[in-house]
Specification:
Length: about 240
């Protein structure tokens, strides 16, 4: 796996680390057409393999048109730097949702790094196809993906229509990813779930405390050696 680095998002002036798994909460199709094109255009310019997972042909064509306005899409398709994948071909095996298939596909693409001319993988998909019974399975997969690829050279984003989520579902969706993209007053924001942010702050505090404690311990060792040396000098006198 490659070293961790900061990856530009494209739709806002922010970068994220390798392994970022974003949940995008959107209101309508216009939101997807606002976020996805610059997200993938930035990935293509950043020499990443871009995988666009679409729920229907109508949205696929709209995304293609928008993306063509930002980059020379035909060239990237010829170079196999961008792939449009129907959601069933990504998430399902024999018409049954399969998290194993998802992992297998991501791992296969990761194996291309170092052998093909790509520096990372960027994938995003619209999850509006999910029905109530499937959501639980999908979120179990999302949690595992967040952990499994947290240091890998990938950038993943799942978009959920907020109107289809109950409060409980919304909480589960947010907790399954490590970054949240949401819109407020027509402006997009990226943040971490509170629980994750608090945990990171606690870890940072512990690291600072450990460094301080180790530093004091080293000072004590030096002091003890100095005292022992002085005691030996006193005994000689």
């Amino acid at each position: 796996m490659s070293e961790r680095k900061h990856i530009p998002l494209g739709f806002i002036k922010k970068s994220v680390e390798n392994g970022a798994h974003i949940v995008m909460l959107y209101e309508n199709e216009a939101d997807i057409l606002r976020i996805f094109p610059p997200f993938f255009a930035t990935g293509l310019k950043n020499n990443e393999l871009c995988i666009i997972i679409y729920p229907n042909l109508r949205l696929k064509q709209k995304l293609k048109k928008k993306l063509t306005e930002l980059v020379n899409l035909k060239d990237y398709i010829k170079e196999k730097k961008v792939e449009f994948v129907y959601y069933k071909n990504f998430y399902f095996k024999n018409n049954v949702f399969s998290k194993e298939k998802v992992y297998k596909l991501i791992d296969k693409k990761l194996n291309h790094i170092g052998f093909k001319d790509i520096d990372g993988i960027r994938a995003a998909g619209d999850m509006s196809w999910i029905k109530d019974k499937l959501l639980k399975e999908v979120l179990i997969c999302a949690k595992e993906v967040t952990k499994k690829y947290r240091k890998a050279p990938v950038l993943l984003m799942c978009s959920y229509p907020i109107e289809k989520l109950s409060i409980v579902d919304l909480i589960d969706v947010i907790q399954s990813h490590n970054l949240i993209l949401y819109k407020k007053d027509k402006k997009w924001y990226l943040s971490e779930p509170t629980e994750r942010r608090v945990l990171k702050e606690e870890i940072q505090d512990l690291e600072r405390f450990t460094k301080l404690a180790v530093g004091r311990e080293l000072d004590m060792i030096k002091l003890k050696k100095k005292i022992a040396k002085l005691e030996k000098q006193l005994k000689r006198r």
